[in-house]
TrEMBL record:
Organism placement in taxonomy: Bacteria, Pseudomonadati, Acidobacteriota, Holophagae, Acanthopleuribacterales
PANTHER family: TRPL TRANSLOCATION DEFECT PROTEIN 14
Pfam families from the UniProt entry: AAA_28
Residue ranges of every copy of the NadR/Ttd14 AAA domain listed in the record: 13-171
Protein name: AAA family ATPase
Amino acid sequence: MTQPQTSAKAPLRIVLTGGPGGGKTTAADLFRREIGERVVIVPEAATLLFSGGFPRSDHDLATRSIQKAIFHVQRNLEDIQSAEFPERILLCDRGTIDGAAYWPGGADDFFAAVGTTLAQELARYDAVIFFETAAAGDISIEGGNPTRTESLAEAVELDGRLRRLWSQHPHFHLVQHAASFFKKITFGLAHIESLVGQYRSNGNTLDMKDSER
């Protein structure tokens, strides 16, 4: 089996992920506004593709092709941004593992289909900040992203599948749903700020004990 080539990592690569309507994209944009040119955002590949007219389908065979396309676009977007801005913090709006939660045949089959493993993809990122879907609190997730199609129940189920995958990362941080979206985003931003500060003060490393599941 041919393995994808692993690129040189950015000084700090953080993935923001979670179920639909969790607030990750809002958090990424606010953090970029706060620290400016010290950070570069890797946009969500699925949103880029679907908003550009990429076809959607519920058929298993088509879903497999869609998720493989998203995986490769996501991976290459990260590598391009890392190469273009090697000294900047890389904030990824979703990561290469997310597609496994949508894959009809399960996670193992997904990673085999794209020629990699869960461990290899987890190793691409220094830390994971997981924003729990607002659907966990029975709050509508319709606003914000016009490409979002999940019902509340589907969003909660997807959130669980994503969390089971990403929580295997040694630096996994959970931002739980809160009644106040403002407080939730503030909590998420504090996590990002803490990771960046820790990384710099520890000589470009993160403490293994600093993880939440």
